[in-house]
Amino acid sequence: MIDHLPFDRPDVGEEEIAAVAEVLRSGWITTGSRAKEFERRFAEYAGAVHALALTSGTDAMQVALAAWGIGPGDQVITTPLTFCSTLHIIVHQGATPVLADVSPDDYNLHPERVAEQITSRTAALLPVHLAGLPCRMDALLDLAQRHGLRVLEDAAHAAGARVGGRPVGSLGDATAFSFYATKNLTTAEGGMLTSDDGEFMEQARLWHLHGLSRDAWKRYTAEGAWRYDVLVPGFKSNMSDLQAALGLVQLAKLEKNIARRAEIARQYTSAFAQMPELIPAPDAHPGDRHARHLYMLRLRPDRLRIDRNRVFEELRTRGIGASVHFIPIYHLSYYRERFGWRAEEFPETEAIFRSCLSLPCFPRMTAVDVERVIAVVAEIVESNRA
Ligand SMILES: Cc1ncc(COP(=O)(O)O)c(C=O)c1O
To answer: If you placed Cys at 34, which of 103, 197, 241, 313 could pair as Cys (CB 3.0 to 4.6 Å)?
Structure first.
């Protein structure tokens, strides 16, 4: 039997278990003091004035678009190299997603391709910090300012990333984080929205919980009252104290865990840079900090006799879990059929998709695990040179 190394395993231990148990015993298990504390601490970490804890990164993005009133007639420009929910939230608002191709050096939205897509109907830019590598935010923020656009960052991968000295979460008009099970910081399921704009965050708070004019938990505490009003047809996206308790422990570990991820990535890159059949995962732009959520290795199809799918299978046969981030949006039936996008329109995204593979890169990997991944990749490459 081959020992299986999973693609990811969350770093959740006794401390998280104790924190969640404490909430369970407290008699208050939904949104309450833990969620407030998590918001306060996360805002501080992300360099933002406000933070709102939610049920997912998807909800964080959805609530942001709703709070801005982005809807029918509006266009939102984003990347095809992302998870489907980055697009779903635009469609749910009745707005129109517009795709711009990515850059081959960071796999993120290319500011020039974005500029080409701006029209009088463009309302917002939605850049994704893929893998945890920050986008070229200076260029994107400059474009947004010149055209009067809002910027919502999909930072699902990027808790802990920085642009210059500034944390992701303090750059655009609003930033959405995901705390899904595999993310750098997990609450099993969960998300956070950050912003410096107090009025926007008031709207976001309204939208995240049924449009109620008061937070539910206040209604049931001594200072609260039974009366409430509903101002908008809001969502049900509040984070529970169970998740927040988990998040507070995870937040305290985040820097240490990013450092470990960065060390694994460094070892991968120094090994793969020796193999001309491979393109190591890109580093952050100078002065920026990569959150190292994913290690996206690329193959050079011209130098190998097997394609990405075969390499994936070879890894699996040898007990190494891998993944692909992402199947581009234009390959997904709903989007292809509704918007008529074709792969030829996005040559850089398509080339990355066809050649990329995400390797295990999680804090609990041992030195032996990392060496094993490198050795297995080397073995596959050596026996399949073109
Ligand atoms: C790039 C990207 N955006 C958004 C999301 C959605 O996050 P969540 O699962 O918390 O809704 C994900 C989740 O995997 C993601 O990878």
So the answer is: 241
Question: How far, in Å, is the centroid of ligand 1 from the Cα of 188?
Answer: 12
Domain 255-383 in the same topology as domain 14-250 = no
Q: Model-level pTM greater than 0.85?
A: yes
Domain 255-383 has CATH 3.40.50.150: no
User: Going by CATH, does the domain composed of 14-250 fall within 3.40.640.10?
Assistant: yes
Based on the number of CB atoms within 10 Å of its own CB, is 318 exposed (0-12), middle (13-18) or buried (19 or more)?
Answer: middle
Return d(Cα 200, Cα 18) in angstroms, integer.
Answer: 35
195 Cβ inside 6 Å of ligand 1: no
Between CA 201 and CA 103 the distance in angstroms is 32
For residue 86 and ligand 1, the question of a CB distance below 6 A is answered with: yes
> Ligand 1 within 6 A of 128 CB?
yes
Give, for ligand 1, the residue of 8, 52, 83 to mutate: max count of ligand atoms closer than 8 Å to Cβ: 83
Determine the residue of 59, 81, 82, 85 to mutate for testing ligand 1's pocket, defined as the one with the most ligand atoms within 8 A of the Cβ atom. 85
pLDDT tens readout for residues 262-309: 999 999 999 999 999 999 999 999 999 999 999 999 999 999 999 999
CA atoms within 13 A of residue 289's CA, in its CB half-sphere = 16
- What is the residue extent of each domain of the chain? 14-250, 255-383
